[in-house]
Amino acid sequence: MGGTLVLDSEGLAKLADGDQRARAYLEVARARRARVVVSAVTLAEVLRGNARDVLVHRVLSRVVITPVTPELGRAAGELLGATGLSGHRCAIDAVVAATALGLPRPVVLLTSDVNDLTRLVEEPGVAKDQRVAVVHV
Predict the structure, then answer these.
(1) CA nearest neighbour of 39 among 63, 71, 74
(2) In angstroms, rounded to a whole number, what is the distance separating the alpha carbons of residues 95 and 99?
(3) Is residue 118 classed as helix, strand or coil in its secondary structure?
(4) Each residue of 86-100: b (16+ CB within 10 Å) or e?
(5) Whole-structure pTM over 0.70, yes or no?
(6) pLDDT of 81 strictly over 90
(7) Are strands 132-136 and 35-39 parallel, antiparallel or unpaired?
(8) Which of 82, 90, 132, 133 could be 121's S-S partner, Cβ–Cβ 3.0 to 4.6 Å?
């Protein structure tokens, strides 16, 4: 029991839009009493000041929004350096990855960017069942 479900921008958007697959992950997380987490940086990718934001805010009212701290920023930068990824999109992914890596396991990360996030959360030497699981939505 326990663990964490992390939503990146696509995971959050899919839940807001009522996507059944994303909803199934949310229901499993709730049944396991897992925390559901969104990085504060993800809000900049999803919120646009339009009518759809009402649906996003409904999801956000039921999840934990984690702040981006200086320590998290440094960890994200180190992940980018270790993987050779760069650019603003990868920087946001690195913050989400650093957030996921710091949370209680098991961790499932819902994303549309499986390749980059899988590289960013890779943990050599960590047992497979304790690694962050990156799932496409």
Answers:
(1) 63
(2) 6
(3) helix
(4) eeeebbbbbbbbbbb
(5) yes
(6) yes
(7) unpaired
(8) 132
